[in-house]
């Protein structure tokens, strides 16, 4: 009903479907989803999109159906928010969604597919449905027969199985965590974990957590919703028993390796991981996003695991050296191919890897080889392999004959799998609207053949095996015979209407031809029921069965060829190990590049990690990781002992501690951190953060009980090489008891040589510190958060500086904070009365404006250009910008140092016509890496964007000047006769000031136009 959804939404303050509750006119919810891009934020908040098997169709309802209609190319069912497709069309719809998804990018899209698994046991006739697969960017291929549930192939037992072994030492419990990865024959061990660290690893995204196997005393209460199963025996016996139980004959044992080294930090506990944004918590800014720009995806999972579980000084040093090299290189870099390599290996071992899986694997293996040689040339190959060997947990180091095995894998795939060029199959079904009956018939029949042939076409080479070769010939023969029969029996009458039955995969006539009465019969459907309103002939029916059967046989031969390829690769000595290493080479380099590109524009630097330091940490100009140095206040922090920190409410003490903890963790991992140059960190064995938090009623703990349990964990794991941050200990009990306990904890921390911050509002502690032993009290310094007082309208107003200074703050200024956050004045006045009874840095704002130069100030003249090629375009670019260009070869990415800097670039895009040639594109961007990636992902008829190459110049004067240069380069190249893809930006004349401000016109992506072959089309190629 028109506008019904809008009417219902108006009754709610927040519509769960995201529909606006303001009057929008007679607009249906279907159209709202189609037209309101802002509404896609609903899927960003509530992923994934659901596809549920309902009979023969996979359907979505409500908002998800609207997404499929708007961006998946489907029609609504009956004009309602319901849409679906048969199995044969799932992949094309999924591909279309990932290509056209307009939200935060395809990386934010997830599609969960639920399959039917027979009827349940209640006798109600209801069907069982279980999650079969979650499709994400990089994992877009749907595998129909790989179920994630009972009764399925062994491939569906998790990639990683968790075993927890309980230890009892000195009346204190600790746990050994075994993560068994059977398909890559590895078992990594994290020994002697406190409960909080165990939980942070089990509940992180990187650990499979369907069932936890447990060895110890009583079954643990901490497992929550996890299914816990008890096992017994020694270390090796338990692992072997679990493997044999889950994987049967396919179990081949695993290599055991400890994840902890002498220089590794202990894994972060759960509270610490939440407090510094490593594990998701809606209260805390994500550290993962700050490090690589995204919180989801393979790269984000890698970084999260890297921070949760420190890899040791040597591995961190290798990572740091790679990051430093990438920060300084001016060269374009080879592309990377990120795949879920462990999942691909699992598919290969099960013989279930698809063509898309092999193509992705081939590209990953190729790219890894290129990067290995590239790093050898640049002198960082040793650093890269330090990290790779740790991540792949190989007992004997890297694979011997790595390059030889790589070539063998590539050759096997090359001999069997159809390349992307060979796999191009015309699968677009033509529309019959507006066509005559005969033309409609031809289109319908052609679409029928398209749907059947694409079940086998383009997956393997047609001569991959003798069986495939013969099966393809049989399909073509049967198709020709069916076409002859159709022409004889269905096409002879121009008025005859052919019906395509997609459910029965058949062709029928709607009516029996009048001139051949009695020659036709009623067909039967797949359930052997006679279709009284459809007609066919015995010959057509026979040829149809032959053709459909031939396509199914061909599909089976193709699947057999892929299965044989999996077996051939699996039989290579160390073949799967080499594939694993290739996957990690791509991942490590991708993480490093994304990290450099993300943080260089934020003003972060790389601290040094030193084995012998007079301080645990010495950080210059540290600032919050969720802010930039221009918007966040910086502080210098040197810790060699405990810092007792006091401060008014809301003055930034928790922020300072969180910032120092995050910076120290990043530095130890070998990453950039939000600190100034000259910062240093010692080799730490633990980082512990205990923030102010509430009770945990589901665990039977009060706020104070939870505090004390965490402090007990801290004493059990931290040493004089640890960094500890405790915020407001003792606030969950009476002030007197709280101060006494807090003072005792602070004394013990100082006595043990622990370094860190101890923040408190319990000022009585400072009367107790002088009673500590002298050698203990001298390891405690007092710091406070400074405040300023400014005169506003004759009233003295508190202003937070967010700067550390020496001293003790004895005024929490709680009433100031209460007023700031809206406590009524009458309540504040009464609070001041009660208070009397009870008692017996410079912030950098804005940015510097630079003067705009005239257009002629940046231009030098160039001579005639005889050849209109990329070299000539580069001459124009360098002349106009007065800069030297960086070369961007095909399939290379820009150097990461350019990210966050204003750049102008020229791309040479090959034409796909037989005559060859190229078109040219000029653009400007402050994120040239992402922009080039966006260009290469485009699909424009006649142009091969994926193979484009180019030249890039950096424009130090900022975005305004970059746009001026872009406009001038376009004008000159167009005047010289270059074939330009877009000339829209030559019209820009007002470019603003140094940073693109000053009221200049703002360029938007949807303003740009492409001109290809004299035609204009929408484009999204500008920043």
From TrEMBL:
Biological process per Gene Ontology, one example term: mismatch repair
Domain GIY-YIG stretches: 900-980
Entry annotated with the keyword DNA damage: yes
InterPro entries assigned to the protein according to its UniProt record, in alphabetical order: DNA_mismatch_repair_MutS_C, DNA_mismatch_repair_MutS_N, GIY-YIG_endonuc, MtDNA_mismatch_repair_MutS, P-loop_NTPase
GO molecular function: ATP binding; mismatched DNA binding
Keyword terms of this UniProt record: ATP-binding, DNA damage, DNA-binding, Nucleotide-binding
Highest taxon of source: Eukaryota
Amino-acid biosynthesis in keyword set: no
Protein name per the record: GIY-YIG domain-containing protein
Provenance organism: Triparma retinervis
């Amino acid at each position: 009903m028109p506008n019904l959804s809008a009417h219902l939404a108006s009754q709610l303050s927040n519509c769960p479907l995201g529909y606006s509750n303001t009057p929008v006119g007679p607009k249906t919810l279907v159209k709202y989803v189609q037209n309101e891009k802002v509404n896609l934020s609903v899927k960003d908040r509530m992923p994934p999109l659901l596809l549920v098997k309902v009979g023969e169709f996979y359907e979505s309802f409500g908002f998800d159906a609207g997404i499929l209609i708007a961006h998946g190319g489907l029609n609504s069912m009956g004009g309602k928010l319901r849409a679906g497709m048969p199995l044969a069309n799932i992949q094309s719809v999924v591909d279309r969604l990932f290509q056209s998804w307009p939200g935060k990018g395809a990386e934010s899209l997830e599609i969960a597919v639920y399959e039917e698994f027979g009827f349940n046991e209640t006798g109600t006739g209801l069907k069982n449905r279980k999650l079969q697969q979650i499709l994400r960017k990089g994992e877009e291929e749907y595998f129909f027969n790989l179920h994630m549930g009972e009764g399925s192939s062994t491939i569906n037992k998790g990639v990683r199985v968790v075993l927890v072994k309980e230890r009892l030492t000195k009346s204190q419990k600790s746990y050994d965590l075994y993560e068994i990865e059977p398909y890559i024959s590895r078992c990594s061990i994290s020994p002697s974990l406190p409960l909080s660290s165990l939980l942070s690893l089990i509940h992180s995204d990187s650990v499979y957590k369907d069932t936890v196997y447990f060895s110890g005393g009583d079954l643990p209460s901490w497992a929550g919703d996890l299914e816990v199963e008890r096992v017994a025996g020694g270390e090796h016996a338990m692992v072997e028993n679990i493997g044999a139980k889950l994987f049967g004959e396919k179990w081949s044992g695993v290599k055991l390796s400890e994840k902890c080294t002498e220089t590794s930090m202990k894994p972060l506990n759960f509270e610490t991981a939440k407090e510094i944004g490593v594990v998701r918590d809606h209260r805390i800014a994500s550290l993962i996003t700050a490090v690589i720009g995204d919180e989801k995806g393979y790269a984000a999972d890698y970084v999260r695991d890297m921070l949760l579980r420190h890899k040791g000084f040597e591995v961190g040093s290798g990572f740091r050296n790679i990051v430093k090299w990438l920060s300084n290189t001016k060269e374009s870099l080879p592309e990377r191919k990120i795949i879920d390599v462990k999942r691909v290996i699992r598919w290969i071992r099960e013989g279930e890897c698809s063509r898309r899986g092999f193509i992705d694997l081939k590209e990953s293996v190729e790219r890894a080889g290129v990067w290995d040689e590239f790093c050898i040339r640049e002198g960082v190959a040793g650093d890269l392999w330090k990290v790779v060997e740790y991540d792949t947990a190989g007992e004997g180091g890297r694979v011997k004959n790595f390059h030889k095995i790589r070539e063998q894998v590539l050759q096997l795939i090359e001999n069997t799998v159809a390349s992307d060029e060979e796999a191009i199959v015309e699968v677009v079904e033509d529309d019959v609207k507006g066509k005559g009956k005969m033309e409609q018939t031809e289109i319908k029949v052609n679409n029928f053949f398209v749907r059947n042939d694409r079940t086998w076409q383009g997956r393997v080479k047609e001569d991959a095996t003798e069986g495939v070769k013969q099966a393809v010939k049989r399909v073509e023969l049967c198709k020709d015979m069916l076409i002859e029969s159709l022409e004889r029996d269905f096409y002879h009458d121009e008025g005859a209407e052919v019906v395509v039955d997609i459910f029965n995969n058949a062709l029928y006539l709607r009516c029996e031809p009048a001139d051949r009465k009695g020659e036709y019969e009623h067909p039967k459907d797949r359930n052997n029921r006679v279709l009284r309103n459809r007609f066919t002939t015995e010959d057509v029916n026979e040829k149809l069965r032959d053709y459909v059967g031939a396509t199914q046989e061909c599909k089976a031969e193709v699947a057999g060829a892929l299965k044989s390829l999996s077996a051939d690769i699996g039989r290579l000595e160390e073949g799967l190990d080499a594939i694993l290493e290739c996957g990690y080479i791509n991942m490590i380099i991708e993480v490093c590049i994304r990290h450099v590109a993300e943080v260089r524009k934020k003003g972060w630097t790389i601290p040094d990690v030193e084995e012998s330091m007079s301080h645990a940490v010495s950080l210059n100009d540290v600032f919050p990781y969720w802010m930039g140095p221009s918007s966040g206040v910086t502080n210098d922090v040197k810790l060699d002992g405990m810092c007792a920190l006091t401060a008014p409410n809301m003055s930034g003490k928790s922020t300072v501690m969180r910032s120092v903890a995050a910076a120290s963790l990043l530095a130890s991992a070998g990453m950039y951190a939000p600190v100034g140059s000259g910062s240093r960190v010692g080799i730490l064995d633990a980082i512990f953060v205990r923030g102010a938090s509430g009770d945990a009623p589901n665990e039977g703990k009060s706020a104070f009980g939870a505090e004390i349990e965490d402090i007990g964990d801290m004493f059990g794991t931290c040493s004089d090489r640890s960094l500890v941050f405790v915020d407001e200990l003792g606030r969950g009990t009476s002030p007197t008891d709280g101060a006494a306990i807090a003072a005792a904890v602070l004394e013990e921390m100082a006595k043990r040589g622990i370094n860190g911050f101890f923040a408190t509002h319990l000022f009585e502690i400072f009367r107790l510190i002088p009673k500590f032993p002298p050698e203990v009290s001298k390891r405690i310094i007092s710091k406070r958060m400074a405040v300023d007082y400014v005169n506003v309208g004759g009233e003295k107003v508190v202003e937070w500086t967010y700067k550390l200074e020496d001293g003790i703050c004895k005024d929490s200024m709680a009433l100031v904070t209460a007023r700031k956050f809206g406590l009524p004045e009458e309540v504040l006045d009464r609070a001041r009365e009660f208070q009397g009874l009870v008692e017996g840095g410079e912030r950098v704002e804005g940015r510097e404006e630079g003067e705009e130069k005239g257009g002629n100030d940046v231009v030098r003249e160039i001579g005639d250009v005889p050849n209109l090629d990329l070299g000539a375009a580069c001459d124009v670019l360098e002349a106009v910008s007065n800069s030297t260009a960086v070369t961007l070869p095909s399939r290379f990415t820009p150097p990461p140092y350019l990210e966050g800097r204003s750049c102008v670039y020229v791309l040479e895009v090959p034409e796909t016509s037989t005559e060859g040639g190229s078109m040219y594109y000029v653009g400007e961007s402050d994120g040239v890496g992402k922009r080039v990636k966006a260009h290469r992902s485009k699909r424009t008829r006649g142009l091969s964007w994926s193979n484009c190459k180019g030249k890039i110049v950096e424009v130090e004067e900022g975005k305004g000047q970059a746009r001026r240069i872009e406009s001038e380069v376009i004008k000159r190249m167009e005047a010289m006769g270059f074939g330009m893809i877009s000339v829209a930006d030559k019209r820009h004349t007002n470019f603003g000031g140094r940073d693109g401000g000053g009221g200049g016109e703002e360029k938007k992506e949807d303003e740009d136009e492409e001109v290809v072959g004299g035609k204009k089309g929408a484009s999204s190629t500008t920043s």
